[in-house]
Amino acid sequence: MIKQALLGLAQLNDPRVRRIVWLSVAITLASLTVLVLLAWEALNWVTFFEDGTLEWLADLVAGLGATILVILLTPAVVGLASSFFLESVADAVEARHYPALPPAREQPITEAVVLALRFTGLVLVLNLLALPLYFIPPLNLFVFYGLNGYLLSKEYFELVSLRRLDRAGARTAWRRGRGRFFVAGLFIAGLASVPVAGLLTPVVATAFMVHVFETARQRALKRGDIGTKNDPGNDPGFGSGGPRAGDRGGRVRGKGEADVPQKTGR
Question: What is the pTM of this model?
Fold first, then answer.
């Protein structure tokens, strides 16, 4: 797992990936700046007290609270801003480390944005529900990293796996390797909680998860859970499929083999 994390970080020296980093950071900073300015402007239109001093203090506290809320939302904003480019990050990782892989399914930009919006909404709702627990040390650390580690592992696993699997295969792959993927999510949550470094999280997390997913897939190949890499019918869903369409009696036909009816016992 540490090796894959280091490989994910090392991908930052790829010129294609660095360009994506700068684009996502610029979009994120611009979005956060707009959110803070809108929050402060909205507060100028709200009157809490008639007394000038109390009103000034109330505006200050509310403004600081809005700023802190924006900071807490930074990981979600970063993820949403980067969602347009993460497909290219995965392509860059595979081109460097897994050149023998066939071309991945092209993910429509609408699908990527929908996944990012769904994840952002889920993060907001669940973290707001867990907010009271964040004031109870040391329980807050376990809740924060456990919750966000799971959410991040699920998000980046789906981002990577759906490029190579259908949804049924991805669900099977998740069930068979969810412990490993969850640990990867904890790594990602740890990086996301580091100031400034959190801006790099989506790019590094995508590169990291590609390595985690491919390691799990190759181990499944060695165990015989799935076919060989050269088998065009290879289902990388870690043993998710039954007999393929057109096969009889659970037997997989070889290339060029005739469709011969199988004998069945009575």
Answer: 0.75
